[in-house]
Design a protein that fits this description.
The chain is mainly α. Helices cover about 60% and strands about 5% of the residues. The chain has a two-stranded antiparallel ribbon with strand order 1-2. Helix 5 crosses helix 6. It is globular, with a radius of gyration of 13 Å.
């Protein structure tokens, strides 16, 4: 089992146990691949969802640049919804899981083929 496959087990567990979501494994893998090498470094693979710089990265680099959303698409509301779904008591959240949930929230699965 390679490192990404090991991480996928953690992502699936978080989605099922913390978010009450039965994930689409193909989409989840595509989101993980899309995050590139960032998933292998603890600092870049996790987010807290409370720092302004993290929220700006999610908004600008993922929602706008990657998913093709506009600022008029209620981005902050979507981020807030996903953070609550993941659980505010979960201080550190996997970036891949957050991006997966945002992709599903905004119905942008086609971005990943």
């Amino acid at each position: 089992m390679n490192k990404r496959d090991e991480l996928m087990v953690d992502y699936v567990n978080d989605l099922r146990n913390k978010c009450s979501v039965d994930p689409d494994l193909k989409l989840l893998k595509r989101v993980a691949v899309g995050c590139g090498p960032a998933i292998y470094t603890k600092n870049s693979s996790m987010i807290t969802g409370v720092r302004a710089s993290e929220l700006n990265t999610i908004r600008n680099r993922f929602l706008i640049k990657k998913l093709g959303l506009s600022k008029n698409d209620k981005l902050d509301e979507g981020i807030d919804t996903v953070m609550k779904q993941y659980g505010e008591s979960n201080r550190y959240k996997f970036r891949v899981v957050v991006y997966y949930l945002l992709t599903k929230h905004f119905k942008k699965e086609l971005v990943y083929g």
